[in-house]
Amino acid sequence: MNYLTRQELAAWLDRLAQEQTLIAPIDVAGNILYRPVKDTHDVVWDFTRSFMSVKEVFFPPTERLMLIEKMGAEIKLTETLPDEKSIVFGVRPCDARGLLTLDSLFIENEPVDPYYAHRRENTTLIGLACQSLGPSCFCTNVGGAPDDPAGMDIMLTVSGGGYVAEIITEKGEKISKRFPVFDGLSDIRPHPSSARKQGMKIASKEFWPAKFNDDFWAETAERCLSCRICAYVCPSCRCFDVRDEALPGGDGQAQSERVRCWDSCNGIPYRRVAGGHNPRFMKNQRLRNRFYCKFYYFPIHYGPVSCTGCGRCIDACPVNVDITEVLGYMGRR
Amino acid sequence: MPYEPKIIAYLCTWCSYTGADTAGIARLKSPANIRDIRVPCSGRVSPEIIMRTFEQGADGVLVLGCHIGECHYNTGNHRAAKRLPVVQALMAYAGLEPERVRLDWVSASEGERFSRIATEFTEAVRALGPIHWKISERKTRFVWAQEPISHRYSAFSDEQPKHAVYFTSVHEQHTQAIRSIATELLSNKQVDCVIGYEMGPRGRTRPAFIHQPEAVERLVWNQDCTHNLTAYLSKKLGWGTDGGKKKQPDRLPKAAVVAKPCDSRSINVMLAENRFLREQVYVIGVACDGIRQEAGFNDEKSGPIQTRCAACNVRTPVVYDTLIGEPETTYREIPPEHIYPGIEHLDAMTPPERMEFWLSQFDRCIRCYACRQVCPMCDCPICLYERDDSLWVGMSNDIDEKRAFHLGRAYHLAGRCVGCNECERACPMDIPLSLIHRKMAQEMETIFNFKAGMAAVPPPFVTILGGEENLP
Amino acid sequence: MTDQLNSNPMMPYLGKLVEVKDLATEIKLFRIKMQNGGAEAFHDYKPGQFAFVSSFGIGEAPFGIANIPKNGGNVLDFAVNRLGSVTTDLHELGVGDTVGVRGPMGNWFPMDEFKGKNLIVIGGGIGGAPLRPVIQTVMANRNDYKFFQILWAARNPSLLVFTDEYDEWRSTPDTELHLTVDQADSSWNHNVGLITQLLESVAPSPRNAITITCGPPIMIHFVNRVLVDKLGFKPEQNYVTLEARMHCGIGKCGRCNLGTKLVCVDGPVFTMAEVGALLESFL
Q: Residues of B with CB below 8 A from C88's CB?
């Protein structure tokens, strides 16, 4: 493995930022968010968890799928695939796990979603292991760990005044070549993180159908606001809406774009059809669907459980709907 | 090429449009910058249309109607007269120069008057220069580089936020009082449900719905009781819009709700809007000594009070069936200028600075709609800004759409928002929404001497769209 | 161009409207001629599958394909009821206009498994549209299927679809066509009453039979109740095609699920046994 001081890390990232887009955690009005930066001047080096997950980079809140141009009765469609090369620095293991979960949906499940796939292919992830678990973190209960390198291209672990760097994939190899700090190997190994959380077994898939009609869902949903915060901050939620929206047209050609935007099954209009029929018009149906999708439907269709234990939804919910309470209830016999 | 302002003029068909015609027939000169749009009445020009006109690139908007007292529909122009100053104030606050919007009265025969107003307005707009309201690059990120102004800013601007003094023994008394009333109401079947507060397993206070007397021990009262529980009333009382739940024909649902003074004002607004009947709700009013910042989001017991509480001068619920607590234990004298904290900072900025400020705030918005969902007043069957046909605003995360949503919502809440600030608390991105809503409240008080929710009366004018207008 | 479109499942093929005609009140038939590789993609879709039709500028929505492949998938029929923003925009279009078509998607009626059986097709309102390819398949391969009964219903005569094809259906050998409306007008001289009442009076035998129902959710529910409770059918014999709000159609956006099943990928065709086993109700 290699060892970098903070200065060496910053210098390396600054060089990379000149060749590709560097996306790093910065403070935006008190919220840690991953944003493109010109250099490491504003990067936040010590943080626990960003507010929005790295999912934003690969599956953006709004994404243009194609440009639509109308010329009389004729239509011209232009596919708009993203092709920017970028590097994301400071990815936490829970977020990388979220990306692996989305990979199972968008890439490993046919047909491949080219927008997400292009972004994943063109982006290198530099991970940062967590030194401790926050009060709402529960990654270890869903099979993750604060030092889990799964999904990272390079993994950094804080050690002494610097970082131990492990180059994991070819992509990671590529961005570390040419930089002298990666030439000599060091004997320093990262300590395995001792941070673990006790309790709360996650009920496996088979236990979920039996509790589908329990009163618990209505009771929990009573305070739910049906906003979309939990789905939007989640590293693995993936619901989206697709619509055409007009662009300020130039040259007399009517232009619009087909966009896809984040949506959430918690929202009231999520399943409402044009005629007004809505099979999930009650809050308890929607809230229940969210948890069942994460822990039951998603694994059946795509493999992994759609929760990385990051705890963002717990801290962001204005009425304290708590996923760990749900999991605790499901785990009880 | 010298800047030629694009002006859109909304002219009412009965008076001002004909007045424009008269000007034309008399060969009076009117600037070519003006594009007329004929509407049945100046009262038809809703603020959403005006805001959208600016979004689409107009440099100025002129609304001309019949003279007061001469409206073809009797009171149509009254609506315009009431709305336009409010919408002007809102847009000025968001960074649009107020001189870009003008409301005036022109009758059918006043060709000269039309020509004069049109020329004056065009020159005024020309003098302001090209408008910066329309955002050409919608994907730009806006970051506020200066000193942050947020809800964390103290009401007493130069001082640090006041640390709260929580009367914890009083809280314990209130808890017992609430539990005993709830037991009585549920045992006598006076209500189907008591909506109050409880502590969750993580030690965070949250809304609780008690249906059985055995469960009243869950109810608490403390400094973290921040939620405006009246937001749940419409649906609990069977009149909500959630899937068209049918009203029970034989017996109307009843609920009791624990209401702080600010929350109780919401009840008045909802009663004035016929959301439910007064006899359906039993209000357990609580005289409140202030709610902690961060309430509901962590389990700490003490901290500074919320800005809205530091500025609150309504210490007793305005409507209640039972009152718990005495305002004297909680009363603090608030100087009048601190009732609307934070606004003076924004008012002191120039319009471009204000616009930069608001763009940088809305930039962070993720359109989670938590602000709307948590608000007791926002209860339209389909939100105007969420229509499937993207008529008013699309669904994407672009800055102009987010601004349109927030400003539109602020207008819809003018005269209805009671300042509970739950929207700001719920916002995951710390957008200082209260700074807009309080500004609207200030305008309503200045212009109409109206304070929302102090009594169950309608506001000076209707800001929300009616049933037919609001459905696709 | 074709390669690019093939590899991006969100990009529609272009199609030209070659015929637009009124089928019923607020319901139009759109006949679309596929272009730029679309015909290849649709050359052997099966009855029951659906496609997304785009009205460019507003959006796209899923519609059951209302005919069997003709001319190598070159021409597709869709019946569109004007209800929301996409359908309203589609109704504004005329012959010569361009639309987008994305598909074919979903599963299909297992017509091969139905061979040698009696078929009963039950359509309510615009629900008849996805059943038309079933009828066309039977007519084109008449000897493969046994007795064929078509029950066709609508709220009133002006909402019946494909009325100009009834004579052709009736004149197919060993085929019965039964019509009913909830509310008749003066020109109506067939049955009056709900589809469930018609079904009870026609009383098809469950022996060696398959029923295929499409219509509003509540109709599907009550028709199935009659079939199972009063006529002795087993839920496995009753096929339905369900609707749901969809935005991708390819199992990504997560919207159209009913319990564990995604209507776009695991459906839209289900047996009522499968529907009964769903955790969530489609109602």
A: 389
Q: Say if B397 is an interface residue toward chain A (CB within 8 Å).
A: yes
Q: What is the pLDDT along chain A (333 residues), one digit of tens a residue?
A: 789 999 999 999 999 999 999 999 999 888 899 999 999 999 999 999 999 999 999 999 999 999 999 888 889 999 999 999 999 999 999 999 999 999 999 999 999 999 999 999 999 999 999 988 888 999 988 988 999 999 999 999 998 889 999 999 999 999 988 787 787 777 777 776 666 665 566 778 888 999 999 999 999 999 999 999 999 999 999 999 999 988 876 555 688 999 999 999 999 889 988 888 889 988 999 999 999 999 999 999 999 999 999 999 999 999 999 999 999 999 887
All residues of chain B having their beta carbon less than 8 Å from the beta carbon of residue C59 are 388
Q: Which residue of chain C comes nearest to B389, CA vs CA?
A: C85
Rg (CA), chain C: 18
* Backbone phi, psi, residue A219, to 5°: -65, -45
DSSP 8-state class, residue A61: S
The single-letter code of the amino acid at B244 is G
Interchain pair C57, A70: CB under 8 A: yes
Q: Which chains touch A (3 or more CB pairs under 8 A)?
A: B, C
Q: What angle do CA B45, B49, B55 make, to 5 degrees?
A: 150
Contact B242 A283 (CB under 8 A): yes
Pairwise CA distance, residues A279 & A270, whole Å: 10
Residue B243 C-alpha, separation from nearest chain C C-alpha, in angstroms: 13
Give yes or no for B398 touching A (CB within 8 A). Answer: yes
Q: Give yes or no for a contact between B386 and B438, defined as CB atoms under 8 angstroms apart.
A: no
Instruction: Determine the Cα–Cα distance for residues A24 and A38; give it in Å rounded to an integer.
Output: 10
ipTM score assigned to the predicted complex:
0.92
Of the candidates C10, C54, C48, the one whose C-alpha atom is nearest the C-alpha of residue C32 is C54
Given a contact cutoff of 8 angstroms between Cβ atoms, the answer to whether A107 and A243 are in contact is no
Contact B207 A319 (CB under 8 A): yes
The count of other CB atoms within 10 Å of the CB of residue A155 is 27
pTM of the entire structure? 0.93
Nearest-by-CA chain C residue for A208: C279
- A233: nearest CB among B209, B360, B428: B428
Neighbouring chains of C at 3+ CB pairs under 8 Å are A, B
Amino acid letter, residue B356: E
How far apart CA B211 and CA B193 sit, in angstroms, is: 5
Which subunits sit against B, judged by 3+ Cβ pairs under 8 A? A, C
Element at B16 (helix H, strand E): helix B16-25
* Rounded distance between C-alpha atoms, residue B32 and residue B43, angstroms: 25
